[in-house]
C-alpha cells in the first residue's frame, strides 16, 4: 500500500477493531446476564417445589447451555463479519483526537483519485502531517469503554449473586436429598390378576411412624382444687407399642411417671385415666404440666402435646381481695397470671419444636429465633412487672414475690440464650424453671395479700387521694439525685475495672522484681473503691455481696503480689472477675431502681392528668396555687421521664413510642402547653389550656404503656382471672359435671367446698347464658331450678342434677341451631314500588309476568 494511505488504513483499522471489541464485550455480557437470570429462576423453581424431577432439571440445564453456546457463536460471527462505513470511522477518530483536523476525511477523498500527480503530492503532504500527529502522541481511543465495562460489571454481579444463591440454598443438593427420601415406586405386578397391596401398606413398611395424643380434654384447663379431670390418651404406630405412660410435674418440679396398662392391640391403644386434683396435694395457684409418651419395639419414642392444669381459688374468693376486681392486688395477680399463661405457651411451642422439628435447617433456625424472642420479651415483662409492683406497693410486704419475679427474669434470659445457641435440653430446663419461679411469685403475692389484707385495702382506687405536692416534689428530687449518684458510681467502678484489667495485663508480663510496685497499685485501687463506697452507701446498698467479694479478692491479689507468690497472676485475674461482677450488679441494680422510679413517675403523671382534667371543667374549684404547683410538678415529671427513656441504663428497657413522645417537636409542644397554662390569667384561658395540657400528658402516658414489653401489654389488656364470656357457659357446665363425678365416685367434699363449687357453676352459667343466648325465658327457668336446688338444705340429688344438666345441654344445642338458622336467612327489605322510577316499575312488572307464564 502506498505510504500516503498507510496512515489512513492504520487509523481506521484500529478504530474498527476497538468498535468490534467493545461490541463483543457488551453483547457477551448481556447474553451472560440473561443466562444467569435463567439459571437463578431454575434454582428458585427447585426451592419452591415447582420442579421436583432431577432429569427435567438436567434437561433444562443442557438446553440452556447449548442455546447459550449457539447464541454466543452467532454473536461472534456477526460482529466479525460486520462492515463499517469508513467515513463514519474517520469522523469518530477525528472527534476523538482534534489534532487530525480533517486530514482523514481528505485522504479518503483523495483515495479515489489516485494517479493524478498534484493529488498524489498533496496526499503525501497530508499523510506526513497525520504521521507526525501519531508519532507525537498515541491518539486516544475513539470509543468510550464505559458502556461495555458497565455491562461487564453487571454480568459479574449476576455471577456473584448466582454463586451466593447456590452456596446459601444449594437447590441441586436439596433436590437430590428430597429424591433420596422419597419411598421407592411400587413395581407393577407381573400378573394382571394379582392385586398389589394398598399404597399405605408400602409406606408403613418403608417408613416408621407413630403418634400420641391426649384427646380429652385436649386443652389447658383452669380448675379448682376439688375438680376432677378425665383424660383420654390415644397411641398409634406402625410398629408394636411397647410402653405407654403419661408424665406430670407440679410447679416445674421433678417429673412423675404414671404407667398405663399394656395395650390390648399391638399398634393402637386408648387409655382413660382420671386425675383427682386433691390426690396430688395441689393448692391454689399450683400448675400441673402433663403429657403422654409411647415407645415402640425398635426403641422409637413418640410424645404428645404438653398441657397445663392450673388450680385457682373459687371466683368468689378472688373477688374478696382488697379493692375487688379493680384493685391493685387483683390487677397484679392478673398480670402475673398472664405472664404464666404466656410462658406455658412458649413451653408448649418448644416441646413441639423438639418433637417435630422442621426438615429445613433455615426453618428450624427461624423457629428457635422466634422462641428466643418470646422468652426475651417475657424476661422484659417480668422486669417491668417487678418495677411496677415495687412502685405501686412499696409499703407492702411483697419482698418474697418480687424475689421470685427477679429470679424468673434471669431464667427467662437464660432460656433465651440457650435457644439462640441451639442448646435445647438446657433451654427446656430454664423454661420450666422460669415457669416455677413465676408460679412461686404468684403464690407468694397471694399469701402476702391473705396474711395482711389491710395493707392492700383500697376504699376507692379510682379516686385515690394524691400525695401532697411537697411529697411529690421530694420524690422527684430523690429520683434525680439517685440517677446522678448511680451514674457517677457506675462510671467510677467502670474506671476502676479498667485500671484493674491493665494491672492484670502488666502482672502477666512483669518480672517478679516489679511485683512490689504492682502490689501498691492494687492496694490503692482497693482503698479508693472502699472510700467511694463509704461516701455513697445508697448506690451500693443492693450489691453488698459483690462489693465485699471484690474487696476481698483485691486484697488477696495485693498480698500475693507483695509476697511475689506464683499465685499472683491468678489472684489479679480473680479480682478482675469480681470487679466485672460488681459492675454488672450495679448496672442491674440501677436499671431496676430507675425502672421502678419510672413507674412512680407514671403514677404522678396520671394524677396530674386527673388534676388538669378537673381544672378544664367549668365547675372546677381548684385554687390557682394548686394549679401552679401541679404545672411545675408536671414539668419535672416529664423531664425525668425523658431521661429515663433516653439515657442508660433504662434506655433499652422501653420502646420507641415513649422516646418519640418526649423528643423533638412533641416535647416542644408539650412544654409550650404547660407554659401556656402556667401563664394563663382569665378563667376561659385556664380551662382551655388545662384541657390541652391534659391531652398532651395523656399522649405521654399512652406512649409509656405502648413502650412496655408486648407480653406485659397483653397481660394487662386481658383479665387472666376471669373466663371469657364465650367460655363462661362451658365453664359452668364443666363445674357441674365435676360435681357429679365427685358425688358418683363417693368422694364427698366438705360442705363449704361443695357450696362454693355450686355457686361457681351457677355464676358461670348465668354469665354465659346472657352472653350467648341473651334473655331467654326457658334458659332462665332451667337456671332458676338449679338455683333452687342448690339453696336447698337437704343433700344434693345426683339424678336431679343430671336431669338439669341434660336440660341445659338440650337447650344449648337447640338454641344454637336456631340462632345459626336465623343468621343464615337472607335479609328481606320492604321496598315501596311508588318510590321507583316508572321505567323500573314497568320492567319489574314484565319480569314477574314472564315468571308467572312458566
Written account of the structure:
This protein has 854 residues and is an alpha+beta fold. Helices cover 68% and strands 7% of the residues. The chain is built from 27 helices and eleven strands. It has helices at residues 3-47, 54-81, 86-96, 103-111, 117-136, 146-169, 171-181, 199-206, 315-318, 328-355, 361-392, 399-420, 424-451, 469-509, 515-535, 544-562, 568-615, 624-646, 656-661, 664-679, 683-706, 710-717, 725-744, 751-773, 777-791, 798-824, 838-853, and strands at 210-216, 221-223, 228-230, 232-237, 241-250, 256-259, 268-271, 274-276, 287-296, 301-303, 307-311. The strands form three sheets. Strands 2, 5, 6, 9, 10 and 11 form a six-stranded mixed sheet that branches. Helix 12 (399-420) runs antiparallel to helix 13, helix 18 (624-646) runs antiparallel to helix 20 and helix 23 (725-744) packs antiparallel against helix 26 (798-824). The protein is extended and about 135 Å long. The protein starts with a helix and ends with a helix. Mean pLDDT is 81; it is low at 1-5, 181-205, 460-464 and 825-831.
Mean pLDDT: 81
Structural class: alpha+beta
Radius of gyration from CA coordinates:
42 Å
Largest sheet: 6 strands, mixed
User: In whole angstroms, how far apart are the ends?
Assistant: 101 Å
User: Low-confidence parts lasting 5 or more residues at pLDDT below 50?
Assistant: 1-5, 181-205, 460-464, 825-831
CA-based shape: extended
The share of residues in extended strands comes to 5-15%
Number of helices: 27
How many beta-strand runs?
11
Fraction of residues in helices?
55-70%
Amino acid at each position: 500500500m502506498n505510504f500516503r494511505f498507510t496512515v489512513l488504513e492504520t487509523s481506521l483499522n484500529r478504530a474498527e477493531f476497538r468498535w468490534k471489541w467493545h461490541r463483543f464485550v457488551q453483547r457477551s455480557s448481556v447474553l451472560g446476564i440473561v443466562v444467569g437470570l435463567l439459571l437463578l429462576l431454575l434454582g428458585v423453581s427447585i426451592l419452591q417445589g415447582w420442579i421436583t424431577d432431577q432429569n427435567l432439571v438436567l434437561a433444562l440445564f443442557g438446553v440452556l447451555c447449548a442455546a447459550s453456546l449457539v447464541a454466543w457463536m452467532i454473536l461472534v460471527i456477526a460482529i466479525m463479519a460486520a462492515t463499517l462505513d469508513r467515513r463514519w470511522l474517520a469522523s469518530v477518530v477525528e472527534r476523538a483526537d482534534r489534532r487530525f483536523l480533517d486530514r482523514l476525511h481528505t485522504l479518503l477523498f483523495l483515495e479515489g483519485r489516485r494517479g493524478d500527480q498534484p493529488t498524489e503530492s498533496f496526499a503525501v503532504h497530508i499523510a506526513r502531517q497525520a504521521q507526525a500527529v501519531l508519532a507525537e502522541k498515541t491518539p486516544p481511543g475513539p470509543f468510550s469503554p464505559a458502556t461495555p465495562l458497565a455491562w461487564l460489571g453487571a454480568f459479574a454481579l449476576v455471577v456473584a449473586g448466582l454463586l451466593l444463591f447456590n452456596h446459601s440454598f444449594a437447590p441441586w443438593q436439596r433436590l437430590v436429598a428430597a429424591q433420596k427420601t422419597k419411598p421407592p415406586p411400587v413395581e407393577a405386578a407381573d400378573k394382571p390378576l394379582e392385586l398389589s397391596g394398598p399404597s399405605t401398606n408400602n409406606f408403613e413398611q418403608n417408613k416408621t411412624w407413630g403418634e400420641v395424643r391426649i384427646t380429652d380434654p385436649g386443652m389447658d384447663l383452669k380448675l379448682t382444687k376439688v375438680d376432677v379431670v378425665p383424660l383420654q390418651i390415644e397411641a398409634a404406630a406402625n410398629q408394636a407399642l411397647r410402653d405407654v405412660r403419661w408424665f406430670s410435674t407440679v410447679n416445674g418440679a421433678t417429673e412423675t411417671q404414671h404407667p398405663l396398662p399394656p395395650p390390648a392391640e399391638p399398634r393402637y391403644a386408648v387409655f382413660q385415666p382420671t386425675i383427682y386434683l386433691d390426690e396430688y396435694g395441689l393448692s391454689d395457684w399450683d400448675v400441673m404440666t402433663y403429657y403422654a409418651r409411647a415407645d415402640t419395639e425398635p426403641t422409637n419414642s413418640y410424645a404428645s402435646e404438653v398441657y397445663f392444669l392450673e388450680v385457682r381459688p373459687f371466683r368468689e374468693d378472688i373477688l374478696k381481695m382488697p379493692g375487688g376486681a379493680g384493685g391493685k392486688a387483683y390487677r397484679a395477680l392478673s398480670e402475673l397470671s398472664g405472664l404464666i399463661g404466656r410462658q406455658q405457651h412458649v413451653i408448649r411451642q418448644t416441646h413441639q419444636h423438639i418433637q417435630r422439628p422442621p426438615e429445613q435447617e433455615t426453618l428450624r433456625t427461624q423457629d428457635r429465633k422466634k422462641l428466643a424472642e418470646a422468652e426475651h420479651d417475657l424476661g422484659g415483662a417480668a422486669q417491668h412487672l417487678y418495677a411496677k409492683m415495687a412502685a405501686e406497693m412499696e409499703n407492702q410486704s411483697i419482698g418474697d414475690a418480687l424475689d421470685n419475679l427477679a429470679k424468673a427474669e434471669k431464667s427467662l434470659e437464660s432460656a433465651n440464650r440457650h435457644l439462640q445457641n441451639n442448646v435445647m435440653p438446657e433451654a427446656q430446663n430454664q423454661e420450666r424453671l422460669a415457669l416455677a419461679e413465676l408460679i412461686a411469685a404468684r403464690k407468694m403475692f397471694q399469701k402476702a395479700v391473705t396474711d395482711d389484707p389491710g395493707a392492700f385495702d383500697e376504699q376507692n382506687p379510682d379516686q385515690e387521694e394524691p400525695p401532697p405536692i411537697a411529697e411529690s416534689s421530694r420524690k422527684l428530687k430523690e429520683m434525680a439525685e439517685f440517677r446522678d449518684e448511680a451514674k457517677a458510681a457506675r462510671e467510677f467502678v467502670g474506671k476502676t475495672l479498667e485500671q484493674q484489667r491493665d494491672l492484670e495485663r502488666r502482672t502477666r508480663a512483669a518480672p517478679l522484681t516489679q511485683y512490689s510496685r504492682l502490689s501498691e497499685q492494687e492496694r490503692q485501687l482497693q482503698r479508693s473503691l472502699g472510700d467511694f463506697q463509704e461516701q455513697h452507701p445508697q448506690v451500693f446498698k443492693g450489691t453488698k455481696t459483690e462489693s465485699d467479694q471484690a474487696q476481698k479478692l483485691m486484697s488477696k491479689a495485693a498480698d500475693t503480689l507483695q509476697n511475689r507468690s506464683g499465685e499472683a497472676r491468678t489472684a489479679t485475674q480473680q479480682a478482675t472477675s469480681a470487679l466485672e461482677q460488681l459492675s454488672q450488679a450495679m448496672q442491674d441494680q440501677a436499671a431496676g431502681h430507675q425502672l421502678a422510679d419510672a413507674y412512680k413517675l407514671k403514677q404522678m403523671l396520671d394524677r396530674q392528668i386527673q388534676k388538669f382534667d378537673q381544672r378544664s371543667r367549668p365547675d372546677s374549684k381548684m385554687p390557682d396555687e394548686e394549679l401552679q404547683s401541679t404545672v411545675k410538678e408536671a414539668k419535672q415529671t416529664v423531664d425525668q421521664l425523658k431521661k429515663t427513656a433516653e439515657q442508660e441504663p433504662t434506655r433499652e428497657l422501653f420502646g420507641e413510642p415513649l422516646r418519640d413522645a418526649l423528643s423533638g417537636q412533641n416535647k416542644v409542644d408539650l412544654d409550650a402547653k404547660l407554659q401556656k397554662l402556667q401563664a394563663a390569667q382569665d378563667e376561659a384561658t385556664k380551662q382551655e389550656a388545662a384541657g390541652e395540657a391534659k391531652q398532651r400528658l395523656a399522649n405521654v402516658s399512652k406512649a409509656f404503656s405502648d413502650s412496655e414489653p408486648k407480653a406485659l401489654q397483653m397481660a394487662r389488656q386481658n383479665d387472666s382471672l376471669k373466663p371469657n364470656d364465650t367460655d363462661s357457659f362451658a365453664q359452668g357446665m364443666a363445674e357441674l359435671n365435676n360435681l357429679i363425678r365427685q358425688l358418683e365416685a363417693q368422694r364427698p367434699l366438705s360442705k363449704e367446698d361443695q357450696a362454693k363449687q355450686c355457686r361457681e357453676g351457677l355464676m358461670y352459667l348465668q354469665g354465659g347464658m346472657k352472653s350467648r343466648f341473651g334473655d331467654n325465658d326457658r334458659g332462665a327457668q332451667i337456671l332458676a331450678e338449679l338455683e333452687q336446688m342448690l339453696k336447698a338444705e337437704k343433700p344434693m340429688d345426683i339424678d336431679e342434677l343430671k336431669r338439669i344438666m341434660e336440660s341445659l345441654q338440650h337447650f344449648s344445642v337447640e338454641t344454637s341451631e336456631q340462632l345459626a338458622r336465623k343468621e343464615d336467612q337472607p335479609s328481606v327489605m320492604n321496598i315501596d314500588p311508588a318510590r321507583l322510577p316508572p321505567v323500573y316499575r314497568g320492567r319489574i312488572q314484565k319480569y314477574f309476568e314472564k315468571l308467572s307464564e312458566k
